[in-house]
Design a protein that fits this description.
Chain B: This is Methionine synthase I. Chain B: Keywords: Metal-binding, Methyltransferase, Transferase, Zinc. Chain B: InterPro entries: HCY_dom, HCY_dom_sf. The complex is a heterodimer of chains A (233) and B (336). Chain A folds into two domains: 8-99, Methyltransferase, Methionine Synthase (B12-binding Domains), Chain A, domain 1 (Orthogonal Bundle); 100-233, Rossmann fold (3-Layer(aba) Sandwich), CATH 3.40.50.280. Chain A is built from nine helices and five strands, in the order ααααβαβαβαβαβα. Chain A has helices spanning 13-25, 29-41, 46-66, 72-96, 116-127, 141-151, 168-178, 196-202, 211-232, and strands at residues 102-108, 130-134, 155-159, 186-190, 206-207. Chain A has a five-stranded parallel β-sheet with strand order 2-1-3-4-5, with helices on both faces. In chain A, helix 5 (116-127) links the parallel strand 1 (102-108) and strand 2. In chain A, helix 1 crosses helix 3, helix 4 packs across helix 5 and helix 6 packs across helix 7. Chain A is globular, with a radius of gyration of 19 Å. Chain B is of the alpha/beta class. Helix content of chain B is 40%, strand content 14%. Chain B has an eight-stranded parallel β-sheet with strand order 1-10-7-6-5-4-3-2. Classes of the chains: A alpha/beta (233), B alpha/beta (336). The interface between A and B is large, with 54 and 51 residues.
Chain lengths: 233, 336
């Protein structure tokens, strides 16, 4: 429809940011790339662009996912569009030394090949400004331990979709306890067969029912941790 | 609907059939370790698979599902067994067939086919054709081992159901499929329970039965059942719900549902129009026996409401599937 055709470069900054929220919602990758480049050319800092256009847009997507308005296919399209914008911004963010919210190591547990939910969490966390190290699927406890020792993340995230694999989360957390490193990290768990009670029982800090909740929980727990560290300093 | 086949015949004879309970959680109870593939026990501990089938039949199951849920190459790859798809699936079917054939009554052997775990294009890398090939390879093994019907379960994507159905038809087998309605009352991919019927209507003679399995709790799946039977009162609908909610007790996973609760779940399922009733995660033989007794003694009563279900089975974990047809947002303009 020619009448509706929107020329991104003709929009004001505010309008363009709004439009990028809409385009993220609709999973329009090329439009997000174009919008990102336009705002950069207008002198936006990579960090402001990330937070105001991309992170805010993904927050809206996350809310509608949480509320059962959007489902996995739509959110994956949105996350892919966000990633396209991120890949333009990432080198610039590093160059400009933009602040990071935190770092997360994430992986699906041993025996489980499901990575849809885990990927969504990774993408949304990245979209919210976290560094994400993705260990992929089928991770034995050694992989998790090695990765957290190497990466020193703030958060460890584990995912499982099968009833046969979800108890493995406890194996990982118990190993962390044995090594005396459990409390050095925030441990988040997620996956379809899990629930809050399960998260508590395996010794995680929180169960996150979806990617949007994971982002909110991660932010909240990191804030609390900082406060605690500040108080004890 | 397909012509004569053992499942259709038994449905006609008995009206309502009892399927089996959980495979994964029961194998845990027999010593399967978290992260191990249940399918590998077909080779390393076939006597345990035989026993599980036997226990289900002794508890009253009319239908048993083969231990082949993760039997596609996509999933066996994880255990470096992707080159044994045919052999493992054939064995899964043979073990179940042998137990069923010894039973004092007719027992149907349904070949369990679970999701590949991969995303179809454009969301992921798996093409529709390669999905059909994966399922076809698995079903070929199941057929060689003697299954009566292909049982496509725990599905969330419409096209993956279609691919598995197409593979079943390719091998001349009737098929049943069930979705897992675990996300805000719909499948993870957004399929509403009421839309389950038409997904594969054009593939072969259409499904023999459709329905729901796994998902979240027993109340939630009964609510999905109401949606399914309302959308097509003539369809043969399956409901195979989890035995309550998983919880840890010490190091053991325990499901909150008791045998009396699962018996009441079975009665409500009958009232809501289900023709095939079983259990998923956490459903043991004790639960199944209670369900058998309930199905046999219960006289179909008034169709329950969601309120009745919640009153008798407990609160829902998720909201009832919404009716919003598509995401809508206040928009400034839409691209052409």
């Amino acid at each position: 429809m020619a009448d509706d055709e929107i020329i991104l470069s003709e929009l004001s900054d505010d309008e363009l940011v709004q439009q990028m929220h809409d385009d993220l919602y609709d999973g329009l990758k090329e439009e997000i790339e174009e919008g990102t480049n336009i705002l950069l050319s207008r002198g936006w800092t990579p960090y402001d662009l990330l937070t105001e256009a991309l992170v805010e847009g993904m927050r809206i997507v996350g809310e509608d996912f949480r509320d059962g308005i959007l489902f996995v296919p739509e959110v994956l399209m949105s996350a892919n569009a966000m990633k396209a914008g991120m890949s333009i911004l990432r080198p610039l963010l590093i160059e400009t030394g933009a602040p990071k919210l935190g770092k997360m190591v994430i992986g699906t547990v041993k025996g489980d090949i499901h990575d849809i939910g885990k990927n969504l969490v990774g993408m949304m966390m990245e979209g919210a400004g976290f560094d994400v190290i993705d260990l992929g699927i089928n991770n034995p406890v050694e992989n998790y331990i090695e990765a957290i020792e190497r990466e020193q993340p703030d958060i460890l995230g584990m995912s499982a979709l099968l009833t046969t694999t979800m108890p493995y989360m406890k194996v990982v957390i118990d190993t962390m306890k044995e090594k005396g490193i459990r409390d050095d990290y925030i441990v988040l768990v997620g996956g379809a067969p899990l629930n809050e009670e399960f998260g508590k029982a395996v010794g995680a800090d929180a169960y996150c029912r979806d990617a949007a909740v994971a982002v909110e929980t991660a932010k909240e727990l990191i804030k609390r941790r900082h406060n605690r560290l500040a108080a004890s300093a | 609907m397909p012509a004569s086949n053992p499942l259709a015949d038994l449905l006609a004879e008995k009206g309502v059939l009892l399927a089996d309970g959980a495979t994964g959680t029961n194998l845990f109870a027999m010593g399967l370790e978290s992260g191990e593939a249940p399918e590998l026990w077909l080779d390393s501990a076939p006597e345990k698979i035989t026993r599980l089938h036997q226990d289900f039949i002794d508890a009253g199951s009319d239908i048993i599902l083969t231990n082949s849920f993760g039997g596609t190459r996509n999933r066996l790859k994880l255990h470096k067994a992707e080159d044994r798809v045919f052999a493992l699936n054939k064995k899964a079917a043979e073990i179940a067939r042998a137990v069923a054939d010894k039973a004092p009554r007719k027992v149907i052997v349904a070949g369990s086919v679970g999701p590949t775990g991969d995303l179809l294009v454009p969301l992921g890398a798996m093409t529709y054709e390669s999905a059909v090939d994966s399922f076809s390879e698995q079903i070929e093994g199941l057929k060689a081992g003697g299954i009566d019907v292909v049982w496509i379960e725990t599905m969330s994507a419409r096209d993956e159901i279609r691919a598995a159905a197409e593979a079943a038809v390719k091998h001349g087998l009737p098929y049943v499929y069930t979705g897992s309605f675990d996300t805000a009352g719909k499948t993870m991919m957004g399929v509403h329970p009421r839309d389950i019927h038409k997904i594969a209507a054009d593939i072969g003679d259409g499904p023999l039965a459709v329905g729901a399995n796994c998902g979240v709790g027993a109340s939630d799946i009964l609510s999905s059942l109401l949606d399914m039977t309302e959308a097509d009162p003539d369809a043969i609908v399956v409901v195979k719900g989890n035995c309550g909610i998983p919880e840890f007790r010490g190091t053991e996973i325990h499901y909150s549902g008791t045998p009396p609760l699962m018996a009441d779940y079975a009665r409500l399922a009958v009232d809501a129009g289900a023709r095939i009733i079983g259990g998923c995660c956490g459903t043991s033989c004790d639960h199944l026996r209670a369900m058998r007794e309930a199905v046999d003694s219960h006289i179909k009563a008034q169709r329950p409401t969601v309120e009745t279900i919640v009153e008798r089975i407990g609160p829902m974990r998720n909201a009832v599937a919404g009716n919003a047809p598509a995401p809508t947002r206040e928009r400034r303009g839409r691209r052409g």
